[in-house]
Amino acid sequence: MNVLRTEILFLVSMFCVVIVQAGVPAADKKQPPAELLERAQSGKAEAQRLLGLLYRDGKSVEQDYKEALRWSRSAADQGNGLALDDLGYLYFLGWGVPQDYDIAKGYFKSAGRAGNPRGYFNLGECYFSGLGGEQNYERAVEYWKKAAEAGSGEAALALAMLYASGDGAPRDANEALRWCEMALKTTPTEALIFLGELQFQMGEDEKAVASWEKAAQKNSQQAKDLLRLKEWRRRKPEAGQFAYVAIPHIHQGYNNCGATSATMVLQFQGTKAGPYDVKRLCSSPIGTGSDWSELIAAAGKFQQRWELVTFSDDDPGFRQGTELLRRQLDSGRPVVIDFTVPSSSRPGEFAGHTVVAVGYVAANDWFILRDPAPKSPGLRILSTAELKKLWRSGGYTATARQVARPAIVIAKD
């Protein structure tokens, strides 16, 4: 699970649906550091920005979005580019203010103009997803390039993935490599993982291993999993023992794991659809969870037949569920499944996350997943015990009445 990075908007959370389990006890009131408060009160913009972040994130003080807004705005009024982006973040999520994507985009643009490349990166994400207005890939690329050229590794990697996949721009391997190499300067771990995947896809296995080993040395679990999977991804399947279904990976962006996982399967089936094309066929707004019954209906719009299958949340149900996974994978069909995990941003709450099961290795007790949350290639290994703990959901459809182990399968012809 990705660690929350509070200063990067579109990694706010890797999950789609928040399920409230229990109330969180109110924190003891705490005072901000005296020196920081004094500097902020004297008008120092950077101190005001940092104080706003403390109140926003509840670090060393009681969380207070109104105070976060007040101090962030004071810093932004002085032209602080980081604070301008922080204000956009608050409006984007509706923390302390009514949610307003248009205002958020305005602050992101101002942040970029003030020299903060993260503002342009976030603005590009808004255009790519269509949040706050019409989806516009050209504008997304324009602002990502501005951000990347100003030093944003996130933007450079977004461009590399875009040119590699052809999702939003013509596929161009040379451009993918160029932007990936630029991303290496500031986001080396994620860029090394993606560079290794590009090399692997080009048949340059030794170079891929070298890239993944460098990332693994930085303690990247995805890199470690890719090294373990390298030989298996080249093997022919053996029913009952091993299967691997190669499907495209798409990064989910902001809170769009359900539609993105569905799109990975649709593209595997030959459908030319993007994740936001699928999301717009659902009734829930962009940036919110997707009802699985609507994802299945969306697949039908692309002439694909899917079925929802559920298993009980107990040992017999798990055994039946894993048997279905193996049968489907042996037949060359990926399976969409839903997890429940502790929320990374809301202590005491749980969140749902949709992934795609793409393989298994019986001898190693592995299940192989394509996870839309990480940057490409998003491959992940889980043991059977880990899968049993995570594969359960109570919010996969509006009509779900109890926790189960849900799966979306490709219907047989």
UniProtKB/TrEMBL annotation:
Pfam families per the UniProt record, alphabetical: Peptidase_C39_2, Sel1
TPR repeat start and end residues: 189-222
Domain Peptidase C39-like: 247-373
PANTHER family hit by this protein: ACTIVATOR OF C KINASE PROTEIN 1-RELATED, CHITIN SYNTHASE REGULATORY FACTOR 2-RELATED
Name of the protein: Peptidase C39-like domain-containing protein
Keyword list, A-Z: TPR repeat
Organism superkingdom: Bacteria
Residue ranges of coiled coil: none
InterPro entries hit by this protein: Mitotic_Regulator, Peptidase_C39-like, Sel1-like, TPR-like_helical_dom_sf, TPR_rpt
SUPFAM superfamilies associated with the record: HCP-like
